[in-house]
């Protein structure tokens, strides 16, 4: 089992140091849900299909995330509260290269 350390700041401004597994095919949205860092029904509304932007995060420290795909880019083009460092948590699959990632959960529309 291989775990990485991630820092996630919730919508209340509280920072959480999270240990996330890299061997369970999880994405950042699922990590946020499993640690209950966002109110039920306000994250991953579409189930992780890049269709709602409820899992939008702001990347504070990028240790080397994969490039944004076309679907993610299109969804962020229609979302609220988008910033230059916005990403969709459902599109960020937990891999060892994400060690040290820091994100802040974007406000829920």
UniProtKB/TrEMBL annotation:
InterPro entries, per database record: 2Fe-2S_ferredoxin-like_sf (IPR036010), Adrenodoxin-like (IPR001055), Beta-grasp_dom_sf (IPR012675)
Q: Which UniProt keywords apply?
A: 2Fe-2S, Iron, Iron-sulfur, Metal-binding
Keyword presence, Metal-binding: yes
> What GO biological process terms are annotated to this protein in UniProt?
P450-containing electron transport chain
A GO term, aspect molecular function: electron transfer activity
Record-given protein name: Ferredoxin
Species this protein is from: Chryseobacterium cheonjiense
The organism's taxonomic lineage, starting at the top? Bacteria, Pseudomonadati, Bacteroidota, Flavobacteriia, Flavobacteriales
């Amino acid at each position: 089992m291989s775990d990485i350390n991630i820092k996630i700041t919730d919508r209340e401004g509280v920072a959480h140091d999270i240990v996330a597994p890299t061997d369970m095919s999880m994405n950042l949205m699922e990590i946020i849900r499993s640690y209950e860092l966002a109110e039920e029904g306000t994250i991953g509304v579409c189930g992780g299909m890049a269709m709602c932007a409820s899992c939008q995060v702001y990347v504070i420290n990028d240790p080397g995330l994969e490039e944004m795909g076309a679907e993610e880019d299109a969804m962020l083009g229609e979302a609220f509260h988008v910033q230059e460092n916005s990403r969709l948590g459902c599109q960020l699959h937990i891999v060892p290269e994400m060690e040290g990632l820091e994100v802040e959960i974007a406000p829920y529309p």
